[in-house]
Amino acid sequence: TGASSGPFYRRRDLYFLLTVYASLTFVTNFPSGFTNSSVNTAVEALDSFIDRSYRERGYHLNEGTLSLVRSATLNAWFFFQIFGALLSPMFLDEYGRRQGYIIGCTVTLLSTAVQVAGVRLALPELILIGRSLTAVASPLCDACLILYLQETAPLSMRGEVSFFCEIGHGAMCVLGSILGMRNVLGYDLEPLLLSSIPPEAVSLLIVWLVPETPKFLLIMRNDRTAAIRSLDFFLGDGVKGNERHDEILWQIERERAVEAGKRQSSFKECLSSFHIRRALLLSCSVLILTLSFYPLLQSSTHFFLAIKLSNAVSEFSSMLIMVIFTFSCVAGSTIIDRYPRRTLIIGFGIITNSFLLAFAVLSHCARLHAYVKYAALASILGYCISFGLVLGPMSWFVATEMVSQRHRATVFSICYAFSNALIAATNFATVPLYRIIGGSSFIILFIIPSLFSLIFIYRCMPESLGKQAHEVVSEIRKSQESLYEADTQPILSDITEEESWMDDECAFKF
User: Fold this and answer.
1) Model confidence over 142-158: pLDDT tens digits?
2) Rounded distance, CA 299 to CA 295, Å?
3) CB 294 within 8 A of CB 420
4) Coiled-coil intervals in this record (predicted)?
5) Secondary structure of 62-101 in the HEC alphabet?
């Protein structure tokens, strides 16, 4: 409402911060969005490359074996992301968010060079190795982005910023889908891979220019001068005295005093504490609702070809669903902070799975009646709209709204590893199983597990909209107390008054 309203001294400071977030979103989402969506529209080019490579070496692959090799190449991404997720807390706590970004972008750039060499040498194995290296680095960059947002974004902006990140992911998926189309870069993987090197080099330059977060600098490095410079970078240097910066620094220093007597978060502590374990289970249940998106991200062209759509229509439709997904994320940013989180997740979980069930049924009918294939395509478009509005963007922020600041990086890593383990398993099985039983594969792999997840969310998930993390934790702790009789209730002392105050109030409550 004014030049100096909110946390910013000047409106241009707000625009600059949004530019920084847009840049970091590009850095984080380009490798995952581009890499996975480009091989979707370029599915025939990938199949041709794999078949030609093995024939030149004296091996002749039948359709089933080729499908398995392709699935292994694509789904190695999700398998190796598990290791990246488990390694991320070590890098983030030891070297910081900025260094984590630099490491992740460097590995990604080198892995692309390995994939280009694989195409030049006609070795699909090098493409597999390159994708695996990128997959290890991807969770590190994702965790860095989440922590940058949590440690620099005002609370009033976090709902919109979360959708802003998913919009960036959708935009990168659209870019990859377009460049993977035969009419854009031709029927060859080499131009496609070469086109990704300049953006990844720019990504490395961006993270080199962005400073470390002020919270990490002051709490972990005890460097007040660098923390002040970081605040100036993210929020503007303001007016003489920097009163707002002094207040923020005081809050961070109080958090450091509270954290001084506490040990660093660990996997063991998170899994042994009831309220954190419940937050993990709820977050993983929400992530189960998103599993069906990843086969569409990587293999929608294959599914469209299976229901007898033409090559051109299949490629265009794969690109179109990414465009629709992106615009749905934009629309979703207008409702995220207006309606209860729990209601949105349950409601859109039901809607999304209803569209998926419609596609499963219609894809069977399309083999008997040609015109039904367009109804099947429409159901996928409806799925992408409902998924982009709520489930896609919100799923990764559920856990971090239910645990304290000290545990967020570790909890995020556990959820990321669990999610990618399920994605690797279901995504690897989807295409071969679809070839055998058709759309019923979606019912078995995704719809039935989602039904159980929705029941658990309905029974156990507390509302987090407009609440501090310690308030949500208190609700979870009350649910634990109800499990015990009054004379046998355990002492629930995981969270102190100071830590409750520190959870979000110190996380830059402007």
Assistant:
1) 888 878 887 777 655 65
2) 5
3) no
4) none
5) CHHHHHHHHHHHHHHHHHHHHHHHHHHHHHHHHHCHHHHH
